[in-house]
Design goal:
about 210 residues; 6-stranded antiparallel sheet; 2 helices; about 10% helix
Length: about 210
């Protein structure tokens, strides 16, 4: 009878990490291409992906890679080896995850809630389809907000209550601290409420 065989194809990215191609893509489809994409490019697709990451509280640890195949259905399945530079912070490294961008959902989807092979600085996972891929981590550090007197007088009572003159003006200073040596995702807005835990929060104007 007839005999058929599939040949495993390995596509490699042009850039290297730790002396090896950053991405090695294994499938039975020849002609797969892997392109490194700058997160600052003017492409509308990349702009959508980066804005979605910010909205989800995700931070890019690597750049984005766009993987394309002549046969997007990937018959026989596919796996990806994604290398990254050692962050030098075991806690941060344990939080790294591989994400895929889903344009139809306008969001990044976790490939598997599994950390990397830290000994080899590598993710090795099966993937269902093709799109943008990146190693990311979640911004788990909340912003820090503090009250700043910008005019008038105030004093703190014995019980810790804050008393202010009618001429007092306040501002709220907010900052998003970095995680280790890496930048945070930033702040979307600041909200406030006064003297009540039952009223809704209000967007912060210039001075309150």
């Amino acid at each position: 009878g007839a005999v058929s065989a599939n040949t495993l194809e390995v596509a490699r990215s042009a850039d290297f990490t730790n002396g090896r191609p950053t991405i090695e893509f294994l499938s039975f489809v020849p002609g797969v291409t892997i392109t490194q994409v700058s997160t600052t490019t003017t492409s509308s697709a990349v702009a959508l992906a980066t804005s979605a990451a910010a909205a989800q509280g995700l931070l890019f640890y690597t750049t984005i890679f766009d993987i394309l195949s002549p046969d997007p259905s990937l018959p026989g399945g596919a796996t990806i080896q994604f290398r990254y530079a050692d962050p030098g912070d075991p806690t941060l490294e344990a939080d790294l995850r591989l994400y895929q961008f889903k344009p139809a959902l306008s969001q990044w989807v976790l490939m598997a809630d599994v950390g990397p092979n830290a000994a080899q600085d590598l993710f090795f996972l099966s993937i269902p389809d093709l799109s943008f891929y990146a190693v990311m981590y979640r911004d788990a550090t909340p912003p820090i907000t503090s009250l700043e007197l910008r005019g008038g007088r105030q004093f703190v009572g014995e019980a810790g209550a804050l008393f202010a003159s009618t001429a007092a003006a306040y501002g709220l200073l907010a900052r998003d601290p970095p995680q280790g040596g890496f930048p945070a995702s930033g702040m979307a807005r600041t909200e406030y409420r006064v003297d009540s835990s039952n009223t809704p929060f209000l967007p912060l104007p210039a001075t309150v």
